[in-house]
Design brief:
This protein is of the alpha/beta class. The protein contains eight helices and 15 strands. Helix content is 26%, strand content 24%.
Length: 312
């Protein structure tokens, strides 16, 4: 089994860069998260354009050039031990053609984020580096569970996560061991057919999403099917599916794990035999537990579910 590169564990006093690679943020939205980094004994270092704003059909955290400047600084500065995205939104696709890893390859570091940051994480994994799919800094102001952040800091300190889940009606039993890929479904879908897409062969795929019409969700899953993804992967983990469909019509609109969304996914993979676990607590939900993109994981789906990452 291939082993991707894990960054060194962080120690007290290490510097964590906070950058905005996609949507814009307000100072007030990051205060709690930045203070949390300090409280854990690390030093937050803010990107020059962290709070910049550029409106061009969407409120970006600065122009493409400004966001490229910040992410390349954070990835390559030898004094930075980890890079934490302030938020997702949209805009990371602008950056990947311009990323430099000259310093990063000498001093690999954790990249932390989810949602639109799936693009950056796919890029890093293509280069052989793992990353953390977990809470951004902004979500700390949304009333999310502290356990999600605790899990991230545990990984930064060198501990790999393990999870036990209750069974779900759409689960498919079985055991598999392999490399975890994936993240936000919309971005996995957006990268299909490009050089930056995940390599799905013999991988365990994780997907989550928010705010999609049910037909759009079906279209994305259908595209994965047409691209042969479900013939390549060895396992599937389905996380948060929330704010799906029409808010006025969907009684589960605010739920973390929308049952109709799950039903659509289950129907599309009905002929597949790989182990499948629904209801993993990761995504645009209050209880967002971190996963290691590129990490090797052991997955057992039976009367309950165990998902354990293996030490590098």
């Amino acid at each position: 089994m291939k082993k991707n590169i894990f960054p060194k564990s962080l120690k007290k006093g290490d510097k964590i860069a906070v950058i905005s690679p996609a949507g814009s943020v307000e100072n007030s939205q990051l205060e709690k998260g930045i203070e949390m980094i300090k409280a854990r004994g690390f030093e937050p270092v803010l990107g020059e354009h962290l709070y910049s704003k550029f409106s061009n059909g969407y409120n970006y955290a600065g122009t493409e050039a400004e966001r490229i400047q910040d992410i390349n600084w954070a990835l390559n500065d030898s004094e930075i031990a980890a890079v934490w995205a302030s938020r997702g939104g949209y805009g990371c696709q602008h950056l990947i053609q311009h990323l430099s890893l000259k310093g990063f390859t000498k001093y690999p570091k954790w990249y932390i984020g989810y949602s639109d940051n799936t693009v950056i994480q796919s890029y890093l994994l293509k280069k052989g580096f793992v990353s953390i799919h977990g809470q951004t800094i902004k979500t700390s102001s949304f009333g999310v569970t502290e356990e999600g952040y605790d899990g991230i800091f545990d990984i930064l300190k060198g501990k790999v996560p393990g999870y036990s889940l209750l069974s779900h009606q759409f689960n498919k039993k079985g055991s598999v061991e392999g490399e975890l890929v994936g993240g936000n479904l919309a971005l996995i879908y957006a990268l299909l057919g490009t050089q930056y897409s995940f390599d799905f062969k013999d991988k365990i795929l994780f997907i989550e999403d928010i705010g999609e019409n049910f037909y759009a969700l079906d279209r994305m899953i259908m595209s994965l099917e047409l691209a042969g993804v479900f013939h390549k992967i060895s396992g599937l983990i389905v996380g948060g599916m929330t704010n799906m469909g029409d808010e006025k019509e969907n009684k589960q609109y605010e739920e973390s794990f929308d049952e109709f969304a799950y039903q659509l996914i289950s129907e599309r993979i009905s002929r597949c035999t790989f182990p499948t676990a629904f209801g993993f607590p990761n995504g645009h939900i209050k209880d967002n537990r971190p996963l290691i993109v590129g990490g090797n994981v052991k997955m057992k789906v039976g009367t309950n579910v165990k998902i354990e990452f293996l030490k590098s």
